[in-house]
Amino acid sequence: MKRALVALLLAGCPEGTTGIIDVSLAVAPSSGDLDPVTRLRVTLTNPEQVVEATRTNDAFDLALEVDAGGQTGSLIVEGFLDTGDLAVTGTTPPFNVSGINARLVVFLAPPLSVGLAPSNVAPADAVAAPLPYGAILASGSTVQVYNAYDHTNLTGVALALPRTQPALGSRADGVVYIFGGLDETGTPTGTLQTFNTTVAPRGAQTLIGEFPEFARAGAVAVSMGNNEFLVTGDPAVELVANTLVPRADLGPLGPAGASTATPSGRVAVFAGPRGIVRVADNAAVVLDPTPRPNAAVVATPFEGAAQFAVIDGTTREVVTVTDAQVTVRADVLSHPYDRPIATFTDRFIIVAGGGDANQDLEVFGPTFEPVAVIAAPGIATPFSLVGLPNGQALVGGPQLSLFTPPSPASPDRR
C-alpha cells in the first residue's frame, strides 16, 4: 500500500472548525506500482473540485480545500501515463464532507480489470452479502467484514454455531441475519442467528433460536423492506422481527432471487425449477414457467423501472423483467456458465460462473450491451460477487479480488 498522497482539507463549517481527510492509495498487485504514473488527478464530486499534480521527487503533492457543509461526495482518483492514457483509477464510497478527521483508502487498478484486493484472505466456500459500507462473508465459524472505505477485511468473533452455505440477510443498520446452512456433520439446519457488524472491535453475535422445521442450506435471503426478508426454499420463509413464518401461499421460491424498491413497495423476482416468479403486494405470480435451475437474478433499477435480469447459465439467455413483462434475449452470454453468479454495481452488470472453465468475468452495460470479458484465472470457482458502494465489485474464490470499472470522470466514461 502506498503512503498517504492526498490531503482533503475541510473548512468553513458552521462551528468554524476544520477537518482533514487523509487519502491513501492502494495499488492492485497485478498493476505493479505507481512508478509509470506521471500525473495524478483527484476529483471531489460534491462540491465539485478537481486538482492535478505531476510527479516530483518520486511523489505527488495534492491538496483539496473545500467548504464543508455536510453534503455527500466521493473522491475519484486517476493516474495518467506520459502518453496521457489513463493507467489506473479508483473511487471512494460516498462520504459526508464535514469538518472531521478521517482516513480513506482508494484502491487503484486499470479500468475494466480484476486484481487481488489489499486484504484478500477469505474463508473457503464463503457466502457474501452487501453492507452499507462494504460486504460480509461467512463460512463455518468465520465471519469477515470487508470495508470499502479503507479496504480492510476484518475477521469477526467466531460463530458459536458454525454453518456453511447459510442465507445472509443484511439490514441497513449493519446487522446481518445468518439463517440455516449445514452444520459440522453436513446436515441442513434451521439455526437463526445475527451478527452485528457495528460493534467494536470484532462484531457481536446473537443466537435467536433453532427452527428445525425450516431447515435448509444454499438458500438466499431477499430483502422485502423494513428489515423483512423472504428466504428461498420449499416452503418459502418470511423473516421479520427475529421471527420465521412459513409462506406456503407463495409456493417454492428460488434458489436465485433479488429485489428492488418501487414507489408502490418492494418487488422481488426469483428463478429456479418453477420458472420465473414475481413477488409483489404479498402475492406471487409465475411470469414464465420455463425451468431455470442454473440461473442468477440481479435487480437492475435503471431509469426508475422495477427491472430484473434472470441470467441463465445453461442456455446463455438473459430474461429481462420489467413490471410484469418478460422478454427473453438469446445468446447474450459469450459462453455457458455453471452456477452463475451476478451483481449490479452503479453502472454495470457483472456475471461469473461457479464452475466456469473459462475463468473470467463478463461485464455488461445497463441494457445488457456487452462491455468486456475479463480474464481472471484466480477465480475459477468464485463463491461470491458483491457490488460495493464505490462502484467496484468484490469477487471471492478462493482469494478476494476487486473488479474496477472505468473511471466515471474520464473521457471514456460509460
Write the SSE topology.
Layout: E1 4-11, E2 19-27, E3 39-45, E4 48-54, E5 62-67, E6 71-73, E7 75-80, E8 86-91, E9 95-97, E10 102-108, E11 113-116, E12 127-131, E13 134-139, E14 142-147, E15 152-155, E16 167-170, E17 175-179, E18 191-196, E19 204-210, E20 221-225, E21 228-231, E22 237-240, E23 243-246, E24 256-262, E25 265-272, E26 275-280, E27 283-288, E28 295-299, E29 307-312, E30 318-322, E31 325-329, E32 340-344, E33 349-353, E34 360-364, E35 370-375, E36 384-387, E37 393-396, E38 400-404
Parallel strand pairs: 1-5, 2-10
Antiparallel strand pairs: 1-2, 3-4, 3-7, 6-9, 7-8, 11-38, 12-13, 13-14, 14-15, 16-17, 17-18, 18-19, 20-21, 21-22, 22-23, 24-25, 25-26, 26-27, 28-29, 29-30, 30-31, 32-33, 33-34, 34-35, 36-37, 37-38
Task: Describe the fold and architecture.
With 414 residues, the protein is an all-beta fold. The protein has a domain at 4-110: Sandwich (Immunoglobulin-like). 0% of the residues lie in helices and 50% in strands. It is built from no helices and 38 strands. It has strands at residues 4-11, 19-27, 39-45, 48-54, 62-67, 71-73, 75-80, 86-91, 95-97, 102-108, 113-116, 127-131, 134-139, 142-147, 152-155, 167-170, 175-179, 191-196, 204-210, 221-225, 228-231, 237-240, 243-246, 256-262, 265-272, 275-280, 283-288, 295-299, 307-312, 318-322, 325-329, 340-344, 349-353, 360-364, 370-375, 384-387, 393-396, 400-404. It has a 4-stranded mixed beta sheet with strand order 5-1-2-10, with no helix packed on it. Strands 4-3-7-8 form a 4-stranded antiparallel beta sheet, with no helix packed on it. The protein has a 4-stranded antiparallel beta sheet with strand order 11-38-37-36, with no helix packed on it. The radius of gyration is 22 Å and the shape is globular. The two termini are 28 Å apart.
